[in-house]
């Protein structure tokens, strides 16, 4: 194994600023995943019934009276009020009279969810703010990436892909809200966050200062790919279990935590059984890395993430979903995927 200086980076300030922007973008993607997990844990997904505004406002209401109809009030186009437990939206600007006039309002037809909870509203709003702010360093990163065009076109191409993926992710957010949190669309929304994370990690790998030549046999590579696929399968299975829990919460209530997984579904048992396979496969990779002196140091972080992931899973099932155990479970899964994907790059893309 040997290393030498990379030659794919431009000199000067572009090199100084670009890599920190990539790292900041990765951190913000993880913050989006955390925020999304908190939204789902608290049931705040419909805290804002419209998108990109919230009840028709760029800064959401803090009191229910703000979304109740008021006489002699200036309403802007897109303003939303709750009338008789249904949403009404203003098709144009107008000033209300002394008496409610249905002519000035249209029924909000994208979904029929009509409730206001200030905590849910602001948790969802903060989730959206995190997503918006994460786009800023990604956009700047994309602009600076053009300085790499002559040296390494891949960096520029994948930076552009990141911006496009973020735009698609924002559109998916709108679709999720408009569908009243349809489970399949929530899953696609989450998977897209993993895709953006993978692209950013690839850009980070391309801009490393040193390259390391790692030689492994075909079996190790196949098992490593299998480990990453297993993680993605586990995440997909976990979303199905989470969907069942969401349905149980609607039926039994948020306080009946001990009954959320009673009875456990077949998908839950598959998800739990798969975790044993995940542990075995990644333990084998760690063992081979130590015995063959491959210096894939991040594999120890893989095992740490798996251990913590299993611990949070045990907490949820046997100790009735302690506070923050659900978002931690998802965040650890995303961290596990990120570390595994970077190890995959080290094995398949390393060159001396």
Description:
It is a single chain. The protein has 352 residues and is mainly alpha-helical. The chain is built from 8 helices and 7 strands, in the order βαβββββαααβαααα. The protein is flat.
List keywords for this structure.
352 residues, mainly alpha
Topology:
Elements: E1 3-5, H1 13-42, E2 74-75, E3 80-83, E4 86-89, E5 94-95, E6 106-107, H2 118-144, H3 153-178, H4 183-206, E7 210-212, H5 218-252, H6 266-291, H7 299-318, H8 325-348
Antiparallel strand pairs: 1-7, 2-5, 3-4, 4-6
Helix pairs in contact: 1-2, 1-4, 1-8, 2-3, 3-4, 4-8, 5-6, 5-8, 6-7, 7-8
- Count of discrete alpha- or pi-helical segments spanning 4 or more residues: 8
Write down the overall mean pLDDT. Answer: 87
Measured distance between first and last alpha carbons = 9 Å
Radius of gyration: 24 Å
- Output the helix-strand order: EHEEEEEHHHEHHHH
Major sheet size, sense and barrel closure? 3 strands, antiparallel
The amount of beta strand, in percent, is 5-15%
Outline of the structure:
This protein has eight helices and seven strands, in the order βαβββββαααβαααα. It is mainly alpha-helical and 352 residues long.
């Amino acid at each position: 194994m040997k290393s030498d200086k990379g030659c794919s980076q431009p000199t000067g300030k572009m090199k100084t600023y670009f890599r920190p922007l990539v790292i900041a973008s990765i951190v913000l993607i993880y913050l989006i995943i955390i925020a999304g997990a908190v939204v789902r844990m608290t049931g705040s997904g419909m805290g804002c019934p419209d998108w990109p505004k919230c009840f028709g406002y760029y800064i959401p209401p803090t009191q229910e009276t703000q979304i109740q109809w008021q006489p002699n009030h200036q309403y802007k186009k897109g303003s939303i009020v709750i009338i008789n437990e249904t949403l009404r939206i203003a098709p144009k600007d107008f000033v209300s009279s002394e008496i409610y006039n249905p002519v000035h309002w249209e029924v909000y037809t994208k979904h029929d969810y009509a409730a206001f909870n200030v905590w849910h509203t602001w948790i969802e709003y903060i989730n959206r703010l995190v997503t918006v702010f994460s786009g800023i360093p990604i956009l700047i990163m994309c602009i600076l990436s053009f300085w790499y065009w002559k040296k390494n076109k891949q960096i520029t191409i994948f930076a552009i892909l990141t911006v496009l993926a973020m735009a698609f992710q924002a559109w998916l957010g709108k679709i999720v809200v408009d569908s009243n949190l349809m489970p399949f669309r929530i899953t696609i929304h989450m998977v897209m966050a993993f895709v953006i994370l993978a692209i950013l990690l690839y850009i980070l790998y391309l801009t490393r200062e040193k390259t390391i030549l790692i030689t492994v046999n075909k079996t190790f590579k196949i098992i490593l790919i299998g480990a990453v696929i297993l993680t993605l399968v586990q995440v997909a299975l976990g979303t199905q279990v989470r969907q069942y829990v969401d349905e149980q919460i609607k039926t039994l209530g948020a306080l009946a935590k001990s009954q959320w997984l009673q009875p456990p579904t077949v998908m839950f048992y598959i998800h739990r059984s798969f975790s044993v396979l995940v542990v075995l496969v990644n333990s084998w990779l760690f063992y081979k890395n130590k015995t063959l002196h491959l210096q894939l140091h991040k594999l120890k972080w893989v095992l740490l993430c798996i251990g913590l992931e299993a611990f949070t899973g045990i907490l949820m099932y046997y100790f009735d979903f302690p506070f923050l155990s659900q978002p931690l479970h998802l965040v650890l899964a995303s961290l596990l995927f990120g570390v595994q994907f970077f190890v995959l790059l080290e094995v398949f893309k390393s060159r001396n």
